[in-house]
Amino acid sequence: QKEVEQDPGPLSVPEGAIVSLNCTYSNSAFQYFMWYRQYSRKGPELLMYTYSSGNKEDGRFTAQVDKSSKYISLFIRDSQPSDSATYLCAMSDWMDSSYKLIFGSGTRLLVRP
Amino acid sequence: DTGVSQNPRHKITKRGQNVTFRCDPISEHNRLYWYRQTLGQGPEFLTYFQNEAQLEKSRLLSDRFSAERPKGSFSTLEIQRTEQGDSAMYLCAHSGRLTETQYFGPGTRLLVL
């Protein structure tokens, strides 16, 4: 079983919809949580960073971390066709001095005009 | 702009050949990481440097792989005697203002025939 699980999708929504993307994880030592957006044949782009539990909002994006359930979410409001990409969750262990990231396999999102 | 450039962007080689990739952070960041990403998967950690010291290597990094970061600035990743299984996107990342965050370059896509 992978340390980080993510539904690969694809997830297809109409423009303007609210999108919910999720990851579950097994390592309770994960403390740093990130969401990356990756367009086809490009490098991942950091969207959101959250430390430990709680919510963080940035424009149309909201990241949530529920450490008790080992579950993280990314919400996208008023989705746009330009949001069509693969979304990767990533996390790292506070006891690991390398801060190396453990990624989910990514969810492919398609926002239809 | 993530502050990381990678060259070449694409590389096609024949099995058994050696290849070298380069990563250039725009400014000198303390930590530099290499990841590998195969189709439909999230990036997987290969190795990282703190300044010029290579501090950790993944078991994915077989003895055919070698990485260097002379003078703590740019880094190179060399693969000797390439195999078809080495075909992947090779990503370089540097740590951000917050040590636990990472910013990725555009990647080098390798195809081994």
Question: In words, what does this structure look like?
Answer:
The complex is a heterodimer of chains A (113) and B (113). Chain A starts with a strand and ends with a strand. In chain A, 0% of the residues lie in helices and 57% in strands. Chain A is globular, with a radius of gyration of 14 Å. Chain A has strands spanning 4-6, 11-14, 19-25, 30-38, 45-51, 54-58, 61-66, 71-76, 85-93, 102-103, 107-112. Chain A is mainly β. In chain B, strands 2, 4, 5, 6, 9, 10 and 11 form a 7-stranded mixed β-sheet that branches. A 4-stranded antiparallel β-sheet of chain B has the order 1-3-8-7, with no helix packed on it. In chain B, a hairpin with a 2-residue loop joins strand 5 and strand 6. By secondary structure, chain B is an all-beta fold. Chain B is 0% helix and 52% strand. Chain B contains no helices and 11 strands. The model of chain B has no long low-confidence stretch (mean pLDDT 93). The A-B interface holds A 4, 6, 8, 32, 34, 36, 41-46, 49, 51, 88, 90, 92, 98-106 and B 2, 4, 6, 31, 33, 35, 40-45, 48, 55-56, 91, 95-96, 98-107, 109.
- Strand proportion of chain A, as a percent range, falls in over 45%
* Secondary-structure content class of chain B: mainly beta
Based on CA inertia axes, which overall geometry of chain B fits?
globular
| Beta-strand share of residues of chain B | over 45%
Give the overall shape of chain A. Answer: globular
Specify the biggest β-sheet of chain B: 7 strands, mixed
Total strands of chain B: the figure is 11
End-to-end separation of chain A: 37 Å
Largest sheet of chain A: 6 strands, mixed
Poorly predicted regions of chain A: none
Order of helices and strands of chain A: EEEEEEEEEEE
Secondary structure elements and pairings:
The complex is a heterodimer of chains A (113) and B (113).
Chain A lengths: L3 E3 L4 E4 L4 E7 L4 E9 L6 E7 L2 E5 L2 E6 L4 E6 L8 E9 L8 E2 L3 E6 L1
Parallel strand pairs in A: 2-11
Antiparallel strand pairs in A: 1-3, 3-8, 4-5, 4-9, 6-7, 7-8, 9-10, 9-11
Chain B lengths: L3 E4 L2 E4 L5 E7 L5 E7 L6 E7 L2 E5 L7 E4 L6 E5 L8 E8 L6 E3 L3 E5 L1
Parallel strand pairs in B: 2-11
Antiparallel strand pairs in B: 1-3, 3-8, 4-5, 4-9, 5-6, 7-8, 9-10, 9-11
